[in-house]
Amino acid sequence: MKPTDYAAFVVQVIAQSNRDSQVLDQHVLRQCLGLSSSFLITDTTTNPNPALGIHSWSVGLNRLVDICLALHKRNQLELETFNSASRACSECWTASGSWRGFADCRDGVRTAAEKLKTVIDSNGRTYRGKSGDSDPVRVLSRLTTDPGQAVYAP
Question: What is the reported pLDDT for 154?
Answer without folding.
Answer: 33
